[in-house]
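TICKET: design request
STATUS: open
ATTACHED STRUCTURE:
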């Protein structure tokens, strides 16, 4: 005995059409292909959009970090310049630490005296960026002239 299978559309489950595509009409298969293509293109566009957002966010963060690091460097250099002015006014100036306000930031400056040299260390922190300037100067005892021997920025 041979059985005859009658073609009936199963509207209860779309998995039926995926498992048995020969029972689907041509329009149904074309619709599934179009839907798959739309989902694929949509996924690719979302991926490209997220990549652009991530890249622009990292670019902005790196630019801001560079700007803050430069500001910390400028503030610490200003503290060292202030200490040089203090030494020019008083050749015996020494300080365990004083603050120099530069805008909304502050540099902490220490000045230590040696026999004929003085060492200035100026440190500034802007947000999480810390920069230090170390200056070694020599003093002429008779003329009180100050000469910068080294200027190191870290």
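STATUS: resolved
RESOLUTION: sequence designed for all positions
ATTACHED SEQUENCE:
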């Amino acid at each position: 005995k041979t059985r005859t299978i009658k073609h009936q559309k199963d509207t209860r489950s779309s998995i039926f059409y995926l498992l048995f595509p020969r029972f689907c009409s041509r329009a149904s298969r074309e619709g599934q292909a179009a839907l798959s293509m739309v989902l694929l293109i949509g996924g690719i566009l979302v991926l490209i959009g997220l990549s652009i957002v991530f890249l622009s966010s990292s670019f902005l963060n790196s630019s801001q970090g560079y700007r803050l690091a430069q500001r910390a460097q400028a503030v610490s250099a200003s503290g060292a310049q202030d200490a040089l002015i203090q030494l020019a006014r008083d050749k015996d100036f020494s300080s365990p630490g004083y603050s120099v306000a530069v805008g909304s930031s502050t540099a902490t400056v220490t000045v230590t005296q040696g026999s004929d040299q003085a060492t200035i260390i100026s440190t500034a922190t802007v947000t999480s960026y810390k920069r230090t300037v170390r200056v070694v100067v020599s003093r002429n005892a008779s003329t009180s002239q100050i000469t910068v021997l080294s200027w190191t920025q870290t």
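CLOSING REMARK: The two ends are 94 Å apart (CA to CA). The mean pLDDT is 83.
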